[in-house]
Design brief:
Layout (H helix, E strand, L loop, with lengths): L1 H13 L4 E7 L6 H15 L6 E6 L8 E8 L1 H5 L6 H11 L8 E7 L14 E9 L4 H17 L4 E6 L6 E7 L15 H9 L3 H12 E11 L7
Antiparallel strand pairs: 1-3, 1-4, 2-3, 2-8, 4-6, 5-7, 5-8, 6-7
Length: 236
């Protein structure tokens, strides 16, 4: 019994549910209605419990017009032991959903970072702004440190931001997801104090100029997008 009690902390660490699987798909232009109906039916029949789906419409950016499907959060242990989804599940996707899509789409894994975020993982909002930041070679650690300083400015403006790091999914990157609890009006310049002002207040006068220099040195590429949650297409 003593051995079991001593092992409990390590078991808990190994099963933290902080991994999100993100899939992006694009409907054929003439098949949007059929695609949404088929996707909703598939999600609600085959993706429940640990494997529930949250479906988003991508409103801007290079993937505008597409859909993002997020599954989880799960642990790597759960993902590793998931196994075959079954012939019925695969057949439904291949027969009823896939033919209504075009292009290759994409799939990525992201790990939620509690230390860098100002919001809990599952404290969601219906409208979000995602910033994708790809680090220059050897700079991914520096990018994390830069976000840590930015967190203070987010907190000063009561911004709810979830931070994720890409996991074995292409180039080394972080994404920040601003969850706009009050909707798009949070994007207005007059909604909260300007970011440079907040940053200088919490990190010291002139620190925002230093941040911009670090950004240019650390970040290889950056892009952003707006997304809207679609409950009717998601798991119930």
């Amino acid at each position: 019994m003593l051995v079991i009690w001593l092992l409990i902390p390590f078991i808990g660490i190994g099963q933290v549910k902080n991994v999100i699987n993100s899939t992006r798909v694009f409907a054929k232009p003439e098949k949007f209605g059929e695609f949404e109906k088929a996707l909703a039916a598939h999600a609600q029949k085959y993706h429940t419990g640990d494997w529930k789906w949250r479906v988003w419409s991508i409103e801007s950016g290079p993937d505008a017009g597409g859909y993002m499907i997020t599954e989880g959060p799960n642990s790597w242990d759960l993902i590793d032991g998931r196994g075959d989804l079954g012939a019925e599940h695969t057949a439904d996707w291949e027969k009823n959903v896939a033919p209504l899509t075009e292009g290759q789409g994409s799939q990525s894994y992201f790990e939620f970072n509690t230390e860098l975020s100002t919001v809990q993982l599952t404290d969601y909002a219906d409208k979000i702004l995602i910033n994708h930041m790809i680090a220059k070679p050897g700079k991914i650690g520096n990018l994390g440190d830069m976000i840590k300083k930015m967190k203070k400015a987010w907190q000063a403006g009561n911004e709810t931001v979830a931070v994720y790091r890409a996991a074995a999914s292409g180039e080394p990157a972080y994404i920040t997801v601003t969850r706009m609890k009050q909707g798009y009006k949070e994007m207005a310049e007059t909604f909260r104090k300007p970011l440079p002002e907040r940053y200088n207040t919490v990190n010291g006068e002139g620190s925002f100029d230093a941040f911009l220099k670090d950004y240019a040195d650390i970040v290889e590429k950056r892009w952003s997008e707006l997304l809207v949650y679609k409950p009717g297409l998601s798991s119930k």
